[in-house]
Amino acid sequence: MARGKHPLMKCRHCDAKAVVNMRQHKLALCGPHFVEWVHKQTERFIEKYNMFTRDERVLVAVSGGKDSLALWDILLALGYRADGLYIGLGIDGGLSYSDESHRYITEFIEARGGDLTLHTVDVAGIYGASIPDAARLTRRGREKPCSVCGLSKRHIMNRVAREHGYDVLATGHNLDDEAAVLFGNAMVWSVDYLSRQGPVLPPSHPGLARKVKPLFRFYEREMAAYAIVRGIEYMYDECPHATGATTIRYKELLNQLEESSPGIKLQYVLRFLKAREQHGLFAQVREQLDLRTCPTCGQPTTNDGACSFCRMWERVNDRRIEQGL
Amino acid sequence: MVEQQQRRSTPAEDEVILTYRRKTFTVAPGMTVRDAITRCGLSPEATLAVIDGELVTDEVVLQAGDRVKLLATISGG
Ligand code: SF4
Ligand SMILES: [Zn+2]
Ligand SMILES: [Zn+2]
Fold first, then answer.
1. Which of B47, B59, B76 sits opposite A21 (nearest CB)?
2. Residue with CA nearest ligand 1 atom 2
């Protein structure tokens, strides 16, 4: 069917039909100009926030979803030294969630000639139980495995980055992720998190990689559009445990505000960062953080002995032995 | 064969059909993509529309016979 029959909104830079209209920027672009814009913006954010340089080695945490694959694609297109890290969580949920996610990553690599480095960590193979099984075996995750999952992912990312000498760990968090987390933290005035949350997290400990979020100023919708325009096939279905997550509810709320006030999500995050950087908001909290070293794994912890990750897995493995698993 | 196909598609020729995950919605032509998304109970801020395999902007006015694929863009747990 001919598309010509639709009245066209034109690209700002050429005569072609726009495929994306970003109301918060009053900017409509065609496919090629949108891709160019995303690349230039990412480069600008990486420089502006001192995320990393072309000499540094970047480890990109890829989940198979749109954001992380888009991030890897963008960094490679920009000529950065970016390798991937996939963490096999062992989540099935009736849709082979983890296996399918891995398949999208494999396809992404094959589509680029297969010449990319991907570190794969199979949680069950290395630690003894999949994330859902570990969650069932510990008090921490009776209802939802997310806390066990988040704790494990953070630890594994740090570990792989350190073992392989990466300078930076990059994740695909977008503006909507940042805004939802900020909203959640501000709802309960979690000053600890509010003092740290941001696009760059300096290493809190010697030997740890710096954590960065190069996509944090792009809307989630733009990242989905980027994946479609670039022909990146990604895991469209959500993790089965994400349903009903508070993050998703916050995102929906913020999108309702965005509908009538384009740009409000972006301003919410940017002005928060500005208040902190330029006006010292939460500066005192940041200085108070007292970190020690976990004697078992060497990663930072606020605990007096083993870190939460090591304690949790010790409990899981004790239970496995008790239950003869 | 041709006739059968025509007959099957005739009733929908004058309407617009939108699909979202496993759901199907029907709206009248003349509405913008943005309004149609809202009509389906979705947020235009969290939805993208694809017609004939191509992304379209929200301002596009839907025409009779359009088949629109709606994609959710919210993720995360
Ligand atoms: S939704 Fe929960 S279990 Fe699923 S990947 Fe996210 S944190 Fe892990
Ligand atoms: Zn253009
Ligand atoms: Zn530890």
1. B59
2. A146
Which ipTM score applies to this complex?
0.89
Token pair of A3, please? Answer: 């598309």
Residue A237 gets which letter from DSSP? S
pTM above 0.90, yes or no: yes
Question: What is the Cα–Cα distance from B59 to B37, expressed in whole angstroms?
Answer: 11
Is A286 within a domain? yes
In a domain, A46, yes or no: yes
When divided into structural domains, chain A yields a total of: 1
Q: B27: part of which helix (H) or strand (E)?
A: strand B23-27
Domain that holds residue B34: 3-72
Count how many residues are written for chain A: 325
Could you tell me if A63 and A237 are in contact, meaning their C-beta atoms sit under 8 angstroms apart? no
A221 → chain B, closest CA residue: B73
How many domains are there within chain B?
1
Which pLDDT tens digit goes with each residue over A37-80?
Answer: 999 999 999 999 999 999 999 999 999 999 999 999 999 999 99
**3-class secondary structure for A18-66?**
CCEEECCCCEEECHHHHHHHHHHHHHHHHHHCCCCCCCCEEEEECCCCH
Q: Which of A199, A218, A203, A223 is nearest to A272 (CA)?
A: A199
Range of the domain at A78: 31-322
The CATH number assigned to the domain holding A284 equals 3.40.50.620
How many other β-carbons are positioned within 10 Å of the β-carbon of residue B37? 25
pLDDT per residue as tens digits for the range A162-206: 999 999 999 999 999 999 999 999 999 999 999 999 999 999 888
A194 touches A99 (CB < 8 A): no
* A31, A224, A255: residue with CB nearest B71: A224
